[in-house]
Amino acid sequence: MRDADPRTVLGLHRSRHERRLLTRALDLGVTAIDTSTNYLGFHSHEVLARMAGDLLPKFRLSTKVGYFPAPDRAEHSLKPRRLYGAVEQAARVLGREPDVVFLHNPEHSLHEGPAHGREALAQACAALEEAASNGLCGAWGVASWNPSPLRDLIDATTPRPSVLMVRAGLLVGIRTLDAADTVAAAWGLDQGAVWGMSPFGGSTNAPVWDRIDPRVFLRDSNGLSRIQAAFRAAYELPKVGALAVGTDDPAHLGDLIGALSRQVDGRAIDNYRNLLRDRMPGQPA
């Protein structure tokens, strides 16, 4: 069994929630798992408690609230009492208090102008802050697929999360990368308090990974695959202290962990971000 490595989080989005994956993660030193109330058709918490209730105390467990089941679809809400109730239910169904509860994609319910959005975001964050203060979770955070709408809504009245989770990796656009940095700075969060997610944009089998070679971003890539290199580079786009990655293949997880010892070429990363910025619409060709 390897020593615990807090830089990698096993994400359960699209996962089959198999016990063998969790046990292998522990063997690899991955002691953090991330899920959400709406994963596995809103049954993730229930399945985890039933399938691996004895393993959950060995993990740092994070989950998310914000989506709720509704007829024929999922609906998103930032109503404070609804969010607080979701945290209560998560702790009850999981059989333990989550270490972190994220406000899930708050931008999905922030469409009624800055004044309304600023108040809605502050009240939603306050609900999670209250849940943490009352012992329903160890800490709270914000997970945002598109943090751009949050940039102008954070002020001195907005409660400060402990963790911010954003998209990371070579497929993330410069606007999202810049917005992630701006939001983290607005909340006074350093790199260690920022987590990345979806480092492969949803699939390691996408054609893009045959067209580009992420090994150019590493100082030493000998023996690494393109996917391993893309995973390692994702920790720098934007800079994150931990990265949530999903898989149902324990061998794949082991391969990714094996890339963490490699050093990233910081100049190559900076040049890549500059290239993305130069190619933004409206920039001179």
Structural features:
TIM Barrel; 8-stranded parallel barrel; alpha/beta; 10 helices; 285 residues; 10 strands; two-stranded antiparallel sheet
Please state the structural category.
alpha/beta
Helix % is 25-40%
Number of strands: 10
Q: Let me know the largest β-sheet.
A: 8 strands, parallel, barrel
Overall radius of gyration: 19 Å
Strand content: 15-25%
Sequence of strands across the biggest β-sheet: 1-2-3-6-7-8-9-10
Low-confidence stretches: none
Instruction: State the distance separating the first and last CA atoms.
Output: 52 Å
Number of domains: 1
Assembly of the depicted chains: single chain
CATH architecture: Alpha-Beta Barrel
- What is the N-to-C order of secondary-structure elements (H for helix, E for strand)? EHEHHEEEHEHEEHEHHEHH
Instruction: State the helix count.
Output: 10
> For this structure, what is the CATH class?
Alpha Beta
Shape: globular
Task: Write out the CATH superfamily name.
Answer: NADP-dependent oxidoreductase domain
Mean pLDDT, as a whole number? 94
The CATH topology: TIM Barrel
What topology emerges from the helices and strands here?
Elements: E1 8-11, H1 19-27, E2 32-34, H2 39-42, H3 44-52, E3 60-65, E4 67-70, E5 73-76, H4 80-94, E6 100-104, H5 114-133, E7 139-144, E8 163-167, H6 174-186, E9 194-197, H7 208-211, H8 226-234, E10 242-246, H9 250-257, H10 266-278
Parallel strand pairs: 1-2, 1-10, 2-3, 3-6, 6-7, 7-8, 8-9, 9-10
Antiparallel strand pairs: 4-5
Helix pairs in contact: 4-5
